[in-house]
Specification:
Elements: E1 8-12, E2 16-20, E3 24-26, E4 46-48, E5 57-60, E6 63-66, E7 74-79, E8 86-91, E9 97-102, E10 109-112, E11 118-129, E12 132-143, H1 166-175, H2 181-195, E13 197-198, H3 200-205, H4 214-220, E14 222-223, H5 225-238, E15 243-250, E16 253-262, E17 266-269, E18 271-274, E19 279-281, H6 284-290, H7 294-300, E20 306-311
Parallel strand pairs: 3-4, 13-14
Antiparallel strand pairs: 1-2, 5-6, 6-7, 7-10, 8-9, 8-11, 11-12, 15-16, 15-20, 16-17, 18-19
């Protein structure tokens, strides 16, 4: 994954708040045209499953990439040697460089192609020690997505879930009486905000390269911004609601939040509060920590406080 270190943030508004930036299984397209998501249904989950089909592969020891399903919005990677760490760099048509890391032998991992249609360049490197990496290979990839929402519906290294995940079962249960995707969003968002507690100790000690474990977050009911955002993303994606895990900065501190696609509205970014007509600025971490205070609403309601770097 991209090396991310999430720090802590002190927001001085009206008071000081200390926090950090914290069912079935299915493979393949949504069956809709490229401009439509799969479609929400109350209480019904659909977990798309990334696969390495072997149709298009590149690389050799110590790294193999499977690009058979690039049109689905992802590719797969697998390390083939013990005690080997590799770095995969992906640059898409948006010219943003994404850096991912793998070190588990013989385990396929999915990586998203979030920049949409266009030309990608994939570079692979092997860790040779002392912070040095040796080039393995490069691979140009031209992507035409079957559906523009697929990268934001599939699991990946950052948003890791399966049909057996507790988060998926919970999403189905919470949404069973939610008539629309907007209702489901509100219900699940409020559950996460009201149930989770921000983990200051974890924020102070989290190591570079941390990956969220959504079911562990549910079990402990604690987490940092990355945990909040990944959990919400997984739950909403399992309900066929396209969701982007966004990573960047809040002020000058590394932070994570989510953007959600609502069929009646379109992409809604950094939503936080629902006033009966619309959602505005979703930042589950700050909203949870602030417990609905006007100071927090004012901060997360100001888009200038956020700088986007990556989308997963």
């Amino acid at each position: 994954m991209t090396k991310i270190r999430f720090g802590c943030l002190t927001v001085l508004l009206f008071f000081t708040i200390f926090f950090c930036c914290s069912c079935g299984t299915k493979k393949g397209g949504t069956g809709n045209d490229a401009s439509s998501p799969a479609g929400y249904a109350p209480g019904q989950t659909t977990v798309l499953t990334p696969t390495a089909d072997g149709t298009v592969q590149t690389g050799d020891d110590p790294l193999i990439l499977d690009l058979s399903n690039a049109s689905e919005g992802y590719f797969m990677g697998k390390v083939t040697k013990e005690e080997t760490k590799v770095n995969i760099q992906v640059t898409g048509p948006d010219n943003v460089i994404y850096k991912y890391f793998l070190d588990t032998k013989d385990e396929w991992t999915a990586f998203p192609l979030t920049a949409g249609d266009g030309a990608y360049l994939i570079l692979a490197f092997e860790d040779i020690g002392n912070g040095q990496y040796a080039s393995l290979f490069s691979y140009p990839l031209d992507v035409t997505l079957e559906n523009a929402f697929l990268p934001f519906l599939y699991p990946n290294q950052y948003v890791n879930f399966t049909a057996k995940s507790e988060a998926v079962s919970l999403a189905a249960s919470l949404s069973k009486d939610a008539a629309t995707d907007l209702d489901a969003l509100r219900t699940i968002y409020e559950y996460v905000v009201n149930t989770l507690t921000y983990d200051n100790e974890k924020a102070a000690t989290v190591e570079t390269g941390y990956l969220p474990d959504i079911d562990e977050t549910l079990k402990t009911k604690t987490g940092i911004c990355f945990d909040y955002a990944a959990l919400l993303t997984a739950m909403l994606r399992s309900l066929s609601i396209p969701t982007r895990l966004a990573v960047g900065y809040s002020g000058d501190v590394k932070h994570a939040w989510i953007d959600v696609y609502i069929e009646s509205i379109g992409w809604v970014e950094k939503v936080a509060q629902f006033d009966g007509d619309e959602w505005k600025f979703m930042d589950p971490t700050f909203d949870s920590a602030g417990k609905g205070s006007d100071a927090v609403k004012e901060y997360i309601g100001d888009a200038s406080n956020y700088t986007l770097q990556y989308v997963y």
